[in-house]
Amino acid sequence: AAKTAGRRTHYFFNDELREQTERQNAIHNRMRNGLKQHEFYLVYQPIVDFSTGKISKCEALLRWQDENGNHISPAEFIPVAERTGLIHELGQFVLEQACIDWTLVHKSGYPIEVSINRSERELNDMEAAKQWLSCIKQHNIPSSSITFEITESLLMSNKQRQLQILHYLRSQGVQLAIDDFGTGYSSMNYLQRYPVDYLKIDRSFLNHAPDDRIQVALLDALLRVARALDIDVIAEGVETKQQWELLQQQQCDFAQGYFISEPLPLKELLEFLRRWQF
Ligand code: C2E
Ligand code: MG
Ligand code: MG
Ligand code: MG
Fold it and tell me: Between β-strands 55-65 and 71-72, what pairing exists: parallel, antiparallel or unpaired?
């Protein structure tokens, strides 16, 4: 009987795995097709520099509206693309489109920077990294106006190849940011080992500030350490005036969030930048 049960469990497990794989394959195929059909596009979220009050950069965020008109969240499709490998094509599209859009942003009179997310899996290939650099160069975008955002788990994983590629990109002038800081097993210790330019603190780090005294104290400590290491801090997910004022008062370097603007399509971004100047 035990044998039968075991076997049944075995089959059941296989069925579930197979279903999951099939579901993933279906999304993968829809994404691959969607890339060809131009169903993917970018939106840009402005980031304010507290020291000047100006928008100094924007984060490019990927959007997918499928053939039926449904919007699918990157939180849903990025992990699938990472697993199936399609993230390489998606990432290439994101960089290329961001370069095209940024040429227009610069031509429109806004000498600002753009920040682009990179998954861990995109960083295991030196050839790809070289391709990114030549793409940036081809579009005449100074590499220093590009920041790549990577999650803190990569820095902590000690994956030599990825870290080597990050070093290489930075040596070529690209800036690096640690994304979602405060969501993993963040240790400030890692910050001194790997040269990064920015630390993006996750919104969960601030979600109860300024009422939560512990969050305020942690923010204060983090800002001090970052300042000592010459790393600029970008607060993500700033939604309220109270958070904004707290960050300003604590001399945080940059802020990003719905309080300033939600992510915008390029046309609306240009309009936003025009209004922000005045
Ligand atoms: P992320 O890089 O941490 O991006 C910030 C996320 O927070 C974005 O979600 C943004 O829309 C959202 N957000 C911004 N301000 C606020 C706010 O004030 N309140 C709240 N509640 N949320 C805010 P989004 O666009 O859904 O992206 C989710 C994640 O998907 C990103 O997190 C990033 O990890 C990933 N992702 C997005 N685009 C790309 C891409 O082109 N490549 C890769 N590899 N990953 C991407
Ligand atoms: Mg990001
Ligand atoms: Mg983040
Ligand atoms: Mg600074």
Answer: antiparallel
